[in-house]
Design brief:
The complex is a heterodimer of chains A (515) and B (639). Chain A is mostly helical. Chain A has 20 helices and two strands. Helix content of chain A is 71%, strand content 3%. The two termini of chain A are 38 Å apart.
Chain lengths: 515, 639
């Protein structure tokens, strides 16, 4: 065992960062070198996250693996890392998606070095947010996670065509909706819009608490007046909510996801959206417990809208990436609903849904990327009968979609059931009905997509006469799919592995909220 | 010891599924995949027979979802006599069907052959797990998993559009029922705090009757979807697009009766809600009648059998709803054998003739003698003729209905018994005795296909005799009646067979003329009660409509607003940008204009600071006067 004081969280967080630096020192033509470096540094993070998972003391609970180095004394800023059950699970999620993402972008030929560098900067930010116990640091990492996205989408992204219509047709046409530049810009502006609120909220906490510190553990002990709590909570809800894709400020997410390259979509839908939900739960609910009570009905109701509206929205889409993106909106609704229930079952479900949805969306986006690579199309109605030529991809796609509709034996089911139970136990039991109905609508559209793409007779793709290019995945392409599917099945069969950890964090959080 | 036996039932199919699923080379080796799967289900069957002999009560639990403030959720297995019987039925029929499939599916490519057996192993595991589940949540889990297997196997020939369509339809309809199941389950948990059946049975009486009724009604809604009860039966006939052995196993003998088993398993809860039970009974009776009527006019041999399954499950539901849970299970027990037999026999015909249409078959009695005898056995059992197994179970149900005083359902079911005999022998006379020559040359199937059929044939013949033992095993007191009633169902069935003989063998009457006379009813039946049209309308108009509204609203209104805002900002800035031309002259104009403006301002056009600070002495409402005064004063000064 590594010694007690070993900064394992720093290792996890900064390994991608140093990986990025080493990557920068390599020339672009070192094809294998770049990929091995990327894989190696993501493996370090992965091993680190396994280590903390195993050595987290479950009887003790609370934040562990604490690292504390004061940076600016006078302002109360410090380098303060620590992880509890909730963040551990999300760290694990991130490192899984990171490894899968490295494999999924293995075949990128255009400026692959820069791609990995930006991806790793982004991941550093994500890890940092999950382990930071200092709000200043938290914000720093948060911004680091958001900004590389602009370049990743703007350079490696792909465009689609959206027909302008409706009362704002001119605006839609003139703004260039559907292009990758549009997607990148929209996403960045939205998220910066959100972080403005967050920054104000953090500064508010800093000044109103009277402690002159950004330290999370110190701020936890302060109790603010209810009205102040409400205002701050609203700021956090809007700020983090824009990243979590809450209705009606979710529209960046479909456009952004659709425009992003494969690994970025995976990282984005898989992990980045969870940053928002994590922020609401950790900062919003953890520091402002009374406001969490006041706002629970609003959060829950909007979450229910997310679930049903997102599902119906996904049903209307005919572009494969948009379908997955809208399903993310719907599933993030389940996360937020679980958070709003304010009971153990619901919150456990919310965190598990974050994990499960992260892995599932990662898998689906990886598959969409593969399909696009082979068929050069994302338009569902132009595909058909692919199962014959790509049985492997079809199998994994089926696993992904079945998780999405909440099939037992896969992780999505456990999370959804927990959220449903929590919803019924909460003060607003009616949430249960639309949530379950939303799961049904999900079954309708995902199976339909599965059928359209893979089943039935083979269709001619518009600019192709022969099917010879439609091949199953080969070589490295399998790795990401296999890893992600294995996790979905493993967690689905025995969720206690993760739930034990989550439960510790959730129970502690609830003690704060409910007392 | 007993729990080891239980694991010997459950684990082998799972191992077979996992190995076949994970090792592609094993899956693609034709013999390996099938051999493993069949061996595993064989072990399960042996173990289930041992369980039947030992009749243990096993309960085994482990924690699955932890919880500190609420009670944790457990995963485990729980056996009672009903479960043991059901395990036996599932294992035996699955074994027979898997052996039969060796012949039926022999023309498949190695990879799809392996896929077929992988799905079969998964199905066997989930179905056995469903039967032995100890908690409601676990029942739901396996319930969905068998639904998945059904989906995968209906759509086994995925390249056929009808199969893909039928698979998705089956999933959607059953899933729609499961919305009810899920909500009901959560509601029940909300009130009792547990999913465990043993605890639920204890706590249920404490609940208010209305609440419990609501929960059970919702749960029964799930059972209606899965067990193809009216009006959610529409998926089952379409499910016949799957391979015939699959229809025999999943869509006749085991999975579709899961709903009946659920009602039987939850009977300790249902018994507190007489209203829901009578609802179950009525749904069952109506389904029985509608299924049998729809079977009358079908031309596809598998569809006839499918509607017959719908109808027979209706019988089971009616029995369970009327309080005779052991009777329902008994009919399930016998039905599993003879209906599987009928399907396998039909599969044997389809395998030989490559058509499903009964009017393209004929004179098979000579060409396929074994199949003929076996199909006849199944048909007699289904019609309820002594001494075949169906006679015992169906009779018991009808007598029970009568003795419990449910007169109207009794007559409905009695009439259904007549229809059952009629449509079954319609098939028999047309297919085996008819004079049309089939296009393909009919031949008897290989022994791997006939052997399982013979075993099932023996079971269909003999499964009814140990009636007393069966009821004793289930700890149920059966009474025997020796009144006119005991002969009524048999008479009705024989009458049905006789009618079919007159119509289709002797051809004394033309069926088409009867159909014309009864044209309104025929029309309704041809249209399948418009149910498919209604569902299609709901899907096309309502669901797609709402999705259109949501999607359109999101893209063009919610996101449109976002774009409109950014667009207007951009337009404004674009307008303002015109000022910045980059030409020195323009800037000079600007500077000059600014200077002029500045001078103009300083010259006192606008109130300067001093003037603002100047005290206004006059009243505010006196606006014009001061100006005049001032000017006068100025003039005076000037003067």
């Amino acid at each position: 065992m590594i010694s007690e004081t070993f900064p394992v969280l720093s290792l996890i967080t900064l390994s991608p960062f140093f990986g990025a630096i080493i990557l920068l020192l390599q020339p672009e033509r070192w094809y294998l070198g770049i990929r091995v470096t990327a894989l190696f540094s993501s493996l370090i993070s992965f091993l680190g996250s396994l280590y903390v998972l195993v050595y987290y003391d479950r009887t003790l609970g609370g934040f562990q693996f604490i690292e504390y180095i004061p940076i600016v004394h006078s302002l109360g800023i410090s380098y303060h890392f620590g992880a509890d059950g909730i963040s551990l699970v999300l760290i694990l999620l991130t490192s899984f998606i990171l490894i899968a993402g490295v494999f999924a972008s293995w075949t990128i030929s255009f400026r692959s070095k820069e791609f990995y560098v930006l991806l790793f900067l982004l991941v550093t930010g994500v890890f940092g947010v999950f382990v930071s116990l200092d709000l200043f640091l938290f914000f720093l990492f948060y911004e680091l996670a958001v900004l590389p996205m602009y370049l990743l989408i703007g350079i490696w992204g792909s465009s689609t065509r959206i027909v302008p219509s409706g009362p704002f047709a001119t605006a839609i046409k003139e703004m260039g909706v559907g292009s990758k530049e549009y997607g990148a810009m929209k996403l960045t502006l939205y998220l910066l819009f959100g972080s403005a609120f967050i920054l104000v909220g953090f500064l508010g906490l800093y000044s109103f608490s009277g402690l002159k510190t950004f330290d999370y553990l110190a701020l936890e002990t302060v109790s603010l007046t209810p009205s102040l709590q409400n205002w701050l909570f609203l700021l956090f809800y809007l700020g983090f909510g824009s990243l979590a894709g809450i209705w009606p400020i979710h529209t960046w997410s479909p456009d952004g996801h659709a425009a992003a390259p494969t690994a970025t979509s995976m990282m984005h839908a898989g992990v980045l959206m969870k940053l928002g939900a994590y922020g609401i739960i950790r900062v919003g609910m953890g520091l402002l417990p009374e406001a969490a009570h006041t706002f629970a009905p609003v959060i829950g109701t909007i979450a229910v809208i997310n679930i049903v509206y997102g599902a119906f929205g996904a049903m209307w889409q005919r572009d494969l990436k948009y379908v997955v993106a809208y399903s993310s909106v719907s599933h993030m609704g389940i996360v937020m609903l679980g958070a709003a229930t304010l009971n153990e079952m619901g919150l456990n479900g919310a965190i598990l849904q974050m994990f499960s949805h992260g892995i599932m969306t990662g898998l689906l986006f990886a598959l969409v990327g593969l399909i696009y690579e082979k068929a050069h199309s994302r338009e569902i109605l132009r595909m058909g009968g692919f199962a014959k030529r790509m049985p492997g991809i079809a199998t994994f796609f089926a696993i992904g979609t079945l998780t999405s509709l909440g099939l037992p034996g896969l992780s999505g089911f456990v999370a959804e059931v927990l959220v449903f139970l929590g919803a019924w136990k909460s003060s607003y039991s009616w949430w249960l009905i639309p949530a379950v109905f939303g799961a049904f609508i999900t079954a309708v559209y995902v199976l339909r997509v599965l059928k359209w793409i893979f089943f039935g007779p083979e269709k001619k793709i518009y600019h192709k006469e022969d099917f010879s290019e439609l091949k199953d995945a080969i070589g490295v392409e399998w790795i990401a799919l296999a890893i992600l599917s294995a996790i979905l099945i493993g967690v689905g069969l025995y969720p206690k592995l993760l739930l034990d950890l989550i439960d510790i964090g959730v129970v502690e959080l609830l003690q704060k909220i409910l007392t | 010891m007993n729990s080891i036996l239980l694991f010997l039932v459950l684990i082998p199919p799972f191992v077979s599924f996992a190995l076949n699923g994970l090792i592609p080379s094993l899956r693609k080796s034709k013999k390996g995949a099938a051999g493993l799967s069949i061996f595993s289900i064989f072990v399960s069957t042996l173990a289930s027979v041992l369980l039947l002999v030992e009749k243990p009560e096993v309960e085994f639990l482990f924690e699955w979802i932890p919880s500190k403030t609420l009670s944790p959720i457990h995963f485990g297995f729980f056996l009672d006599p009903f479960a043991v019987v059901m395990l036996f039925v599932v294992a035996v029929v699955a074994l027979m069907v898997q052996v039969y499939s060796l012949g039926y599916m022999s023309e498949e490519t190695p990879s799809s052959f392996g896929r077929y057996y992988t799905f079969h192993s998964l199905f066997a595991f989930s179905m056995l797990g469903f039967v032995a589940s100890s908690s409601l949540l676990q029942i739901y889990i396996f319930w969905e998993l068998v639904g998945l297997c059904s989906y995968l196997l209906i759509g086994f020939w995925y390249h056929r559009p009808e199969a893909a369509r039928a698979a998705i339809k089956a999933f959607w309809v059953t899933r729609f029922g499961d919305v009810g199941f899920a909500i009901g389950m959560v509601l029940l948990w909300g009130a009792t705090g547990t999913f465990l059946l043993s605890e639920l049975f204890v706590k249920a009486p404490e609940l208010s009757n209305a609440y419990l009724s609501l929960c059970l009604l919702l749960i029964f809604f799930g059972a209606m979807g899965k067990s193809a009860q009216f009006p959610l039966h529409v998926w089952l006939p379409d499910a016949m697009e799957g391979p015939t052995p699959v229809s025999a196993l999943i869509h006749a003998a085991t999975m579709v009766v899961a709903g009946v088993y659920l009602v039987v398993r939850l009977f300790p809860l249902f018994q507190f809600t007489p209203e829901i039970l009578s609802f179950v009974m009525w749904i069952g009776s109506i389904t029985a009648l509608i299924g049998a009527s729809l079977a009358l006019i079908q031309e596809d041999i598998k569809r006839i059998l499918a509607y017959s399954t719908v109808s027979q499950i209706g019988y089971m539901m009616a029995a369970a709803g009327a309080g005779g849970k052991a009777l329902g299970l008994f009919h399930l027990f016998t039905h599993a054998f003879f209906k599987a037999l009928l399907f396998l026999a039909a599969g044997s015909i389809i395998h030989a003739l490559r058509t499903n249409n009964i009017w393209e078959m004929g004179k098979l009695a000579k060409k396929m003698p074994q199949t003929t005898i076996l199909f006849l056995t199944g048909a007699l059992a289904l019609s309820g003729i002594f001494p075949f197994s169906g006679y015992f179970s169906k009779d018991e149900i009808l007598i029970w209905m009568h003795n419990q005083g449910f007169t109207v359902p009794f007559f409905i079911l009695l009439f259904t018994a007549f229809l059952t005999a009629f449509y079954m022998f319609r098939v028999f006379f047309v297919v085996f005795m008819g004079d049309k020559e089939a296009k393909e040359h009919g031949h008897e199937s290989p022994w791997v296909m006939t052997l399982p059929m013979w075993i099932l044939g023996l079971l269909s013949l003999g499964a009814g005799f140990p009636k007393e033992t069966f009821f004793k095993f289930l700890e149920y007191d059966s009474e025997s009646y020796h009144s006119y009633l005991a002969y009524l169902p048999l008479t009705v069935s024989i009458f049905g067979i006789g009618t079919a003989w007159l119509f289709y063998h002797k051809k004394y009457f033309k069926p088409s003329r009867i159909a014309e006379t009864l044209s309104p009813i025929t029309h309704v039946l041809v249209k399948k009660l418009w149910l498919d049209d209604i569902y299609l309308w709901v899907y096309r108009r309502v669901l797609n409509g709402i999705s259109f509204l949501c999607g359109w609203f999101d893209r063009y209104i919610v996101d449109g607003l976002v774009n409109a805002i950014s667009w207007s900002i951009r337009q404004t800035s674009r307008g303002l940008r015109e000022i910045q031309t980059g030409r020195i002259q323009d800037y000079l104009y600007g500077i000059i204009a600014a200077i002029i403006l500045f001078i103009w301002l300083t010259l006192g056009v606008l109130p300067t600071r001093d003037r603002i600070n100047e005290k206004i002495e006059n009243p505010v409402d006196y606006i014009q006067a001061p100006l005049i005064k001032d000017s006068k004063r100025d003039k005076n000064k000037h003067d």
